[in-house]
Amino acid sequence: MTFRYFLSMLILSMLPVLTYAQKDTHNDESKVPNISLPDLFVNSKGQEINTIQEWEYKRRPEIVNLFENNVYGTMPKAIDALNFTIVNEDKMAMNGMATLKEIDIEVIYRTQSATMRLILFIPNERDEAAPVFLLINHRDPENIDPTRTIKMGFWPAEEIVRRGYAAATFHVKDVADDDKVTFTDDILSKLYPEELEKENGMRGLGAWAWGAMRAMDYFETCQDIDAKKAAVIGHSRGGKASLWTGASDPRWAITISNESGAGGAAISRRKFGETVQRINTVFPYWFTDNFNKYNNNEALLPIDQHMLIAAMAPRAVYVASASEDLWADPKGEYMSLQLGTRVHREIYKMKGDFPKAINSPGNPVHLPYAGHHIREGKHNLTPYDWNLFMDFADNYFRFNNE
C-alpha cells in the first residue's frame, strides 16, 4: 500500500464526518431558530440579581463556573514558582522609538517546568509606566517578528508604540499547539496532565488563556508597564481565548474579541455560520469534552455567549466583526455584546447603550465601558481594527483616570 493510497483512504474516511459537521450550517438569517436565552439576572437557585454584591459574589462566579464546566474547561491555578528571564534586550529598537524585551516565562509545578516566550516593545518616550496591549497570536510567528524585519498588519507594533502603548505578544505554540494531536505537548502534559482525564478539563483554548495570564504575571513585576491598564486581544480562535482570559482573570482592564464567532462572542443558539457541532467536530481540542453534549443541541446549554461578555463587568469589553465574515456571525456577536453589557448598565449604572440595529461598516460605537465596530472586508485583523481599539482605550483610560 503506497502512502498516497493510504492518504486518499484516510481523507475519504473523514468525508462523512466533515459533511455531517457542516450539513446544518447556513448563512441565512431566515433560518435562525426562535431562541430563548438564559437570564443574566436570575441565578441557578431562582434568585434575582439586582445589586453589585449579588452580581460579584453570586451570579458572576456561577457563570464563570458554568463556562468552565461546559465550554472552556477548568483553569489550573496551582504554580510552585515563576521565573522571568530577559533573554534579549534592545533599548534602541524601532530606530530608537522602543525598548525590546524578550522574556522567557518559566512556570514550575511539581518538579516539572514549561517556558513561554513573551515579546514586549515598550515606548521610550513616556512620562510614566506604559499601558499595554497583549496579542494572543495563533498565526504564523512571522506576524510577531521581534526583529521587525517582517512587519505585518496583524500586529502593527510600531503604530501601537507610536500611540503610547507597549506592544506585547506570545505565540500559542509555547503553551498548546494549535493542532489536535500535539496540543498536549506543552503545559497540558508537563504541568497539568490530570486535566486531560477530566471531562471538564482544560484544553487548547484554555491553555492559551492560561498563557495570557502568565504574561500578566510578568506585567505586574515590570516597572515600565502599568498592569492596571492592560488590554488582551485575540483574533478568530485567539478571540475566543481572549474572551475566556478576560472572564477568568479580572486583572485585565479591557478584553477585545476580533471576529471570534462560535465559542467566542457569537450567540450559540443562533446556529448561524459556524455552529457548536461543527467547531467541536473539526477542532475537538479547543474546548472541554463536555461541550460535545451540546452539538446540535444548543438550547440545552446552561449559558450562552452573552453571559461571557457579562462576566467582564464592570471592566471594559470590545467586540469587532467584518462585513464579509458571515461564518463568525457578526449579528450574533453584536447581539451578545448588547445583551451582555446590560450588567454594566443595570447593575453598575454605567451610561450609554448600543443601538438596536448593528452599526454599519465605518461607523464604530464607543461607549464608556464597551465598544463595537464592523469593518468592510473579510476575516482578518488589520491596522484599521487596531486603530479603533486604541481609540477606545485612549478614551477609556483617560476617563477612568479622572
Automatic annotation (TrEMBL):
Entry-linked Gene3D superfamilies: alpha/beta hydrolase
UniProt keyword annotation of Hydrolase present: yes
UniProt xrefs under InterPro entries: AB_hydrolase_fold, GCE-like_dom
SUPFAM superfamilies, alphabetized: alpha/beta-Hydrolases
Pfam families per the UniProt record, alphabetical: GCE_fung
The 4-O-methyl-glucuronoyl methylesterase-like domain, residue ranges: 158-344
Entry keywords, A to Z: Hydrolase, Serine esterase, Signal
Molecular function in Gene Ontology: carboxylic ester hydrolase activity
Signal peptide per UniProt: 1-19
Domain of life: Bacteria
Protein name, UniProt field: Putative acetyl xylan esterase
